[in-house]
Amino acid sequence: MSASVPVSKPPDGSGNRTRTGMLVMATLGFALNFWAWALLSPLAPAFKEQLSLSAFQQALIVAVPVIVGSLGRIPVGALTDKHGARIMFPIVSLLTVIAVLYIGLFGQKSLTTLLVGGFFLGIGGTAFAVGVPYVNGWFPPERRGLAIGLFGVGMGGTAISGLTTVNLARSWGETAPFIAAAVVLVVYAALAALIMREPPSWAPSTVSVAKRLTRTMKLSVTWYASALYAVTFGGFVAFSVYLVAYLESGYGLDRADAAYRLAGFVLVAVALRPVGGWLSDKIGPSRVLAAVFVVVGVAAAVQSTTPELMPVGTTSFLVMAGALGAGAGATFSFVAIMAPSNAVGAVTGFVGAAGGLGGFVPPLIMGAA
């Protein structure tokens, strides 16, 4: 299958336009799949009421897509090295459509059906491992930090979910947000298959997926970057899937208000992600990450006292959001510098998995507490 994908070379004078266009397509695919991936989070409080769920069961509903989407990045990253993003973006998007339609039409009847739907919805979270090696291949080393940071803006798909899901469900019925996401993903899959091209230097890997994964596990950059991303992106994921429930239970906000505040948290993190990549291009990712961890630690310590939401609580959340976003961008600048060029997809899979897993545990702990 991979042999049929042509290695594209942009015409003379059109290189920058082509790179920009491919970056836009990859970012769009990331955002739309993340929108679908996060559909259950804003509706979790409603599921808790309708199905008489415990706080832990509510947390489990939103955590299952996270862990599946995280672990799924490992094979999807290796498959992207083998088959290319032009094939993998449409495949991931269409598989996510099946999960979205199942939940929207059949999967909201019980805890079991929600968990089954959430398991397959996790496929949407693997789109990240498709896009990073793709963008990395289109840009020269000195511009990869900013480019991958801009691609990371696609994690704002969770903000789309936070802003639209509850309102669509209230206005048009519980299936409406799922139908909307499915339609958009189908359109994107068709456009991606028609428009996207592989980077000029890309060639399909001839090594088996199992062997690629084994080799990747032996690289030190895999484990260093995984640890960094487990904290930065893991922190972002944890808040994006549980902040609505936290604000409802801890501060007594209604669901719509909490969802809008979640959207603000996500947007700040999204806005700072390319800044983290850009700063990494200028001063190096290590310095950026060191500053990020200090800022997150201070803001988390402030929030641990459960201060008044305005202004201290809101400020601490937004500061954490910005720092975590910048840290996520800096981590993949580190990957772009340190990972072998023919293994970026596989390394990205492992690092992306670590980021998602870093976001899986905190919501369960918070729900149990």
Could you explain how this protein is built, in words?
By secondary structure, the chain is an all-alpha fold. It has 16 helices and no strands. The chain has helices spanning 15-37, 40-51, 55-71, 73-83, 85-105, 111-121, 127-138, 144-151, 157-172, 176-195, 209-217, 220-251, 255-283, 285-303, 309-338, 344-368. Helix 4 (73-83) packs antiparallel against helix 5 (85-105) and helix 5 runs antiparallel to helix 7. Mean pLDDT is 86; it is low at 1-13.
Task: Give the overall average pLDDT.
Answer: 86
Helix proportion:
over 70%
What is the total tally of β strands? 0
Structural class: mainly alpha
* H/E element order: HHHHHHHHHHHHHHHH
Shape field: globular
Please summarize the sheet with the most strands: none
Percentage of residues in DSSP E strands: under 5%
- CA radius of gyration is 19 Å
Ranges where pLDDT stays below 50 over 5 or more residues in a row are 1-13
Measured between the Cα atoms of the first and last residue, the distance is: 49 Å
